[in-house]
Design a protein that fits this description.
0% strand, Four Helix Bundle (Hemerythrin (Met), subunit A), mainly alpha, 143 residues, 80% helix, 5 helices
Length: 143
């Protein structure tokens, strides 16, 4: 007996298996994408919170240096915050990286005068505020 099975018959006979494979591959692709997106969001969120805390500590250090207690406000300690913030933003958007680089530049130009120069304090405070606003904006954009 010579019974030929046509392509159309084979498709009809195996339609459920073909659909199952398609669904399995689609589900795997979506799950992988979702896991990657979740990991990205988690990294941005963690970095953002660390940056915001460091910005607050830097602002406190600046305020202590100018207004109150020189022992609590050593400008050299500010470098650790500024560098840490810049390092953390390397995993974030270009806008956040730009804001942290601006903070770095402003700090570099003004850190030695923040104990006595009001303009230096204002420049550093403005850069801290701009960086904080950018990080918060990026946090709000997470999916």
């Amino acid at each position: 007996m010579n019974t030929k099975v046509t392509l159309k018959q084979q498709l009809r006979n195996n339609l459920i298996a073909i659909i199952s494979i398609f669904i399995a591959i689609s589900s795997l692709a979506y799950n992988t994408w979702r896991n990657e997106q979740t990991e990205y969001n988690r990294n941005i969120r963690t970095s953002s919170f660390e940056i915001i805390m460091s910005l607050a500590q830097l602002q406190l250090l600046v305020d202590y240096t100018y207004y109150d207690d020189v022992n609590k406000g050593d400008p050299l300690k500010g470098w650790s915050y500024v560098l840490y913030i810049r390092d953390l933003t390397s995993a974030m958007s270009r806008s956040s990286q730009h804001a942290s680089n601006e903070l770095f530049t402003v700090w570099q130009q003004n850190f030695q005068q923040i104990d006595s120069d009001k303009q230096s304090i204002e420049a550093v405070t403005k850069a801290i505020k701009k960086c904080r606003e950018q990080v918060l904006a990026e946090l709000k954009e997470l999916k």
